[in-house]
């Protein structure tokens, strides 16, 4: 296994887990918060997509498809406390946008050389392009841990 394959394995695992956790949640359930001090799932997914776009463009400028107009603003820190579903994007659209970003992540990852993966980013938490791409999976998994709390409070079974 080479570095790109290892990064892809992490992304694939995150996609399997997060898809499983989201598959049977409704738009209404995506507005639930695991705790009063946490962001609702819909906001978290939008935040992950915005981050995915930013990190991919940080890996290779212009590699990420543009987000829909106004999308990043809907999922900014300033909107995290908003509980109005109308202020956010519906689940089917969120998953469509994520699929577009993910396809670009995987295509970009496959196109990079080892030297590209070692290129510095200037970002403290992800100092190389390879580290930025590792975040594509681990960031989703970090948030998915919160989704389990919502799932269990709804009486849904453990999946993994």
Q: Kindly state the number of beta strands.
A: 2
Radius of gyration: 16 Å
Summing up helix and strand content along with how strands pair, one would put the structural category as mainly alpha
CATH architecture: Up-down Bundle
- Major beta-sheet overview: 2 strands, antiparallel
- CATH third-tier fold name: Four Helix Bundle (Hemerythrin (Met), subunit A)
Number of helices: 6
Strand order of the largest sheet: 1-2
User: Order of helices and strands, N to C?
Assistant: HHHHHEEH
What does this structure look like?
It contains 6 helices and 2 strands. A two-stranded antiparallel ribbon has the order 1-2. The longest helix has 25 residues. α1 runs parallel beside α6, α2 packs parallel to α4 and α2 runs antiparallel to α6. By secondary structure, it is mainly α. It is globular, with a radius of gyration of 16 Å. It has one domain: dinb family like domain (Four Helix Bundle (Hemerythrin (Met), subunit A)).
